[in-house]
From TrEMBL, chains A, B:
Database matches in HAMAP family: Asp_tRNA_synth_type2
Function, as annotated: Aspartyl-tRNA synthetase with relaxed tRNA specificity since it is able to aspartylate not only its cognate tRNA(Asp) but also tRNA(Asn). Reaction proceeds in two steps: L-aspartate is first activated by ATP to form Asp-AMP and then transferred to the acceptor end of tRNA(Asp/Asn).
Superkingdom of this protein's organism: Bacteria
Reaction catalysed by this enzyme: tRNA(Asx) + L-aspartate + ATP = L-aspartyl-tRNA(Asx) + AMP + diphosphate
Compartmental location: Cytoplasm
Protein name: Aspartate--tRNA(Asp/Asn) ligase
Residue sites binding L-aspartate per the record: E173, R216, T366, R370
GO cellular component, one term: aminoacyl-tRNA synthetase multienzyme complex
Amino acid sequence: MEFLEGVKKKEIFAIRELEERKPFGEKVSLQGAVHSIRNMGEVEFVILRNREGLFQAVIEKEKGKWELKEGDFVTVRGLLREEARAPRGMELQVERVERISTPSEPMPFAVDKWNLELSLEAKLNMRPIALRNIKERAKFRIQEGIVRAFRDFLYGQGFTEIHTPKIGAKGAEGGANIFKLDYFHKPAVLAQSPQFYKQMMVGVFDRVFETGPVFRAEKHNTKRHLNEYTSLDFEMGYIDRFEDIMAMETGFLKHMTAFLEKEYENELKLLKVTLPKVDAIPMVPFEEAKRLVSEKYQRPMRNPYDLEPEEEHLIGRYFKEEYDSDFVFVTHYPSKKRPFYAMDDPADPKRTLSFDLLFKGLEVTTGGQRIHSYPELREKIKNRGMSEEGLEQYLDTFKHGMPPHGGLGIGLERLTMQLLDEENIRETTLFPRDLSRLTP
Amino acid sequence: MEFLEGVKKKEIFAIRELEERKPFGEKVSLQGAVHSIRNMGEVEFVILRNREGLFQAVIEKEKGKWELKEGDFVTVRGLLREEARAPRGMELQVERVERISTPSEPMPFAVDKWNLELSLEAKLNMRPIALRNIKERAKFRIQEGIVRAFRDFLYGQGFTEIHTPKIGAKGAEGGANIFKLDYFHKPAVLAQSPQFYKQMMVGVFDRVFETGPVFRAEKHNTKRHLNEYTSLDFEMGYIDRFEDIMAMETGFLKHMTAFLEKEYENELKLLKVTLPKVDAIPMVPFEEAKRLVSEKYQRPMRNPYDLEPEEEHLIGRYFKEEYDSDFVFVTHYPSKKRPFYAMDDPADPKRTLSFDLLFKGLEVTTGGQRIHSYPELREKIKNRGMSEEGLEQYLDTFKHGMPPHGGLGIGLERLTMQLLDEENIRETTLFPRDLSRLTP
């Protein structure tokens, strides 16, 4: 009988190992894709690409001729030598090449260009190839770092990770923006958010979070909307005030920037990202924010109940100019624009104990305190003229007791977009879904 | 202007702090739900429940009367004293109680019973309340640990985490087992797996993983099937042989057991879980596995192309009896039962370089090496009488070169179920979706 005992160390070097150990003069093997080839007559510079980045290999004609082409996947073996002119201060003098796979057709465009010269449409149509460009893929490494930081921080704060269903019965919260499907001849919908589930789980785990897809059938076609996105959600019980939720998010952002700086240094450098300051994030009530930007930028207020995109942009500008902050919490949104479960401000029931976080003038988070009292929750549902149908199990949870709680949802692709100063959310979405895009 | 600067330490103690510091004789505050109350006349024992577990508080009648009831959420303050008879060797002598929330109705059943005496149906119908039982919720803490271990291990092995879309255009792989929906008047489907995406991303990141929901419109109604579940998927490039994938999974299982032992000790104890041995996992070819159990247990082979549930069970039993292993990799499944992208065995094209991992006689993983050559992939599609329609972008990725690769998908709820020796997968699914269940 044969047995498996775990991962065996391959005789292949990681680039990081070479950079750390610098075994100049030794024979080493590397694996990668042929990213680009520069033929200089007597020598050929072959740039290899693997998950760690690029590495320069040199083939001297006299050593052998391997007829490599871009897109080949190879194992190369040779002498590692110090070379000040090479990007990492070293290069591999190739002595043996094993081609482990070869493409059927050349690249449809130059993936080895430093900046990929393609329209967004073209990039998205050929996403799996376009991402072989070093800078394009770095965006998604940083996105990975954001999610890791979110989970790491929350584990450390006593949160439990949950996995809630994405298919459900039609609930009362719904509206026109829900994708519908047939579930074994029963009507069903795709989850717009894990809202009800995470609240119900506060009664079990006190603090919970989820990182997963959410679905919005909104007919927006803008640079900042998607119809499917990754939501970073948390919900926490035993809060003393709704500011506790914003404090937790601030804590996450601090952890995130420190974590990215430490673990994703290469990608940050590659994309020339300047991490935002997050040591103190200002918070401003909704109405005051509207007034401040209306005064400073001589812009008349139109909609008293909501922030127009231009207003959000100006609020971002205001707090950058006045407080040098890329972030601002806008608090106390009008009750009529928030869902029924939002807790109204005892000092003014027309507004809620809720907030949005704006990052460089764009909303990246919506959150707030929720009603935890069963009678109050039913009262609010009644006052809104809503039905309790479809909410039975949600309401039952409150009937048997719930601590004061609140939470938030962060749009991962938006947060990434703002962090990287991208103009379109599709740049930071691996495979975007929008009104016109269902593939690849 | 007010600013948020991160999480402030509350003046509330964590149970762990009390157990570590043992500040006997000091005044401390704790928060929790009233899990149970035992009235002894002069004193009342109030068991508090919070995310960390249970803690005993004692109210002496002379100190005050607070009329607590089960399901209240409270902050209690008092003197911490050593008490050998209390579960943690200490208890809180209550001096002040602040009730922060109170239920409208008593619990519908005794959540404080050590073993919840409810049918599975009843538990699922009242999931958010049933999970307030200490043992019920511990299952999902362990499930969290499995997912954490999966990610931690793979980050350490150079994998990149990806987030792929769950809504897509109808692909060629499909069949009857796909949920369909209307996507802005275009036909769309829910992802059965991230298979094509993770393969395409191997060309970008070399090694990728995803932990997310998958959807199967299968009309099974068994103890081990769900229509939505969490899949732990990875895909790795530059493999030398398909055993590399199994070695990676073995590495994960080793990491998982060590991680659970270290970080989820309390929950393992609570549920009396014996972690499986994973130092060496046997592997056996499909046909040999069939022959072995047929001989040992005198069971005629019926279906030569697939394993019946009873056969899986017997294979599990065989390897437990003969090798004392809870796990066994069954390899080389017949080509006709595997998808088109599975790589056939060069030694016998009727079988594939694929495997299932059985854990205590149940399949918890399916994986294998994939075809990476563009001409071979097209050939296989053609030989199967399939169309390339809907596969254009998947195939284009191979056209431009892909390294040898393979991967697997682990059913999270199944793995949890087997680890905890549960009889029904719904026991280890937070909110199961099956043929008849769409709520809560």
